[in-house]
């Protein structure tokens, strides 16, 4: 089991003026901060309690069915050859768009408020993020904020480092961090009210939370309808459901879950943080910049995770483009002082 640093007491952050100008609301400037913004000071963690049997069955299906769909897609390709660009596009195109909904919308915009944007942009990112089938924006962000509150310490919903030592327990911890935590009761109303009260008040996010089951249905049926219309066949619709629906959801899930598991075990550390988060080049590219995870935990409110010039961060490029076109403003970045202070 990796050794994590003692969790420091959260400190207040200060906002420094950007060298480009003093008006932080100006869309041409950034909001530079000298210290990462903490979540509210930690309280003693209370166990969430065991989930009900219905919750366990639901989450097991959420985990298993997309994996089976991915296996079916691989088998079909092996057995029958290339299935056509339509289905490949529905799978990987759907992953790309909904995955960005998670990284730009759920994560950087809603969880950490690393930038502000227009109402139409907020609705767009909330909707495509919800179509990823990783939970409503309110519940996803509440869980993520809790993760930052206790990262790699008791209370973290999905740390791989909370099991005893030894190879077997290390594997158990890795599985728990990847998807096992989903059936352990961390999706609670108490946590939602505690960690995301601001998001619960938002009419757009609140509507998506209340109607999330229909979002899931739409996420699965939309690629089926597209494939059915393109091929004008029922079999095409079924393949669209398989490839662009269930298999796409499975692929997107594992990209996100790998940040919880792989990026807390494998990679490098460039900055001091209170956990064992790592920068991982592979997932920095595959997960739209989320793999620069040590950077993120060192500076949680930064809109940019790939802090070095060579660290490709697609989500940051999109946020930067939104800022350049007037769709985003008050984009938060760490100051040079903060980078130097936390550098290892």
TrEMBL record:
It is found in: Membrane. One of its GO terms (molecular function) is oxidoreductase activity, acting on paired donors, with oxidation of a pair of donors resulting in the reduction of molecular oxygen to two molecules of water. The keyword Isomerase does not apply. It holds the Pfam family FA_desaturase. It is a multi-pass membrane protein. It comes from the Bacteria. GO terms for cellular component: membrane. This is Fatty acid desaturase. Its main location: membrane. Keywords: Fatty acid metabolism, Iron, Lipid metabolism, Membrane, Oxidoreductase, Transmembrane, Transmembrane helix. Residues 1-25 are annotated as: Disordered. Residues 1-12 have a biased composition (Polar residues). The chain crosses the membrane at residues 58-78, 84-106, 213-246. GO terms for biological process: fatty acid metabolic process.
């Amino acid at each position: 089991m990796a050794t994590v640093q003692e969790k420091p007491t959260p400190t207040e952050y200060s906002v420094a003026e950007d060298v480009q100008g003093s008006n932080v609301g100006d869309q041409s400037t950034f909001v530079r901060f000298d210290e990462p913004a903490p979540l509210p000071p930690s309280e003693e963690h209370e166990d969430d309690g065991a989930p009900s049997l219905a919750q366990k069955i639901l989450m097991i299906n959420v985990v298993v069915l997309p994996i089976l769909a991915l296996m079916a897609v691989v088998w079909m390709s092996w057995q029958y050859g290339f299935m056509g660009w339509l289905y490949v596009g529905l799978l990987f195109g759907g992953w790309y768009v909904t995955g960005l909904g998670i990284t730009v919308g759920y994560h950087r915009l809603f969880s950490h408020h690393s930038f502000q944007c227009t109402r139409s942009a907020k609705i767009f990112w909330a909707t495509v993020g919800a179509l990823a089938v990783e939970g409503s924006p309110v519940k996803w962000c509440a869980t993520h904020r809790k993760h930052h509150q206790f990262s790699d310490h008791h209370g973290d919903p999905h740390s791989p480092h909370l099991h005893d030592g030894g190879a077997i327990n290390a594997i158990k911890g890795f599985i728990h961090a990847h998807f096992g935590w989903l059936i352990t009761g961390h999706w609670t109303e108490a946590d939602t009210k505690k960690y995301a009260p601001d998001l619960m008040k938002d009419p757009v996010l609140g509507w998506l939370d209340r109607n999330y089951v229909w979002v899931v249905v739409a996420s699965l049926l939309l690629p089926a309808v597209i494939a059915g219309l393109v091929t004008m066949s029922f079999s095409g619709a079924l393949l669209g459901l398989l490839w662009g629906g269930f298999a796409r959801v499975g692929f997107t899930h594992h990209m996100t879950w790998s940040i919880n598991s792989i990026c807390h075990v494998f990679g490098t550390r460039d900055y001091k943080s209170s956990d064992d988060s790592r920068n991982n080049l592979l997932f920095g590219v595959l997960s739209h910049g989320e793999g620069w995870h040590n950077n993120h935990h060192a500076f949680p409110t930064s809109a940019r995770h790939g802090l070095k010039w060579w660290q490709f961060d697609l989500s940051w490029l999109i946020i930067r483009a939104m800022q350049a076109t007037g769709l985003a403003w008050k984009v938060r970045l760490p100051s040079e002082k903060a980078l130097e202070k936390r550098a290892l």
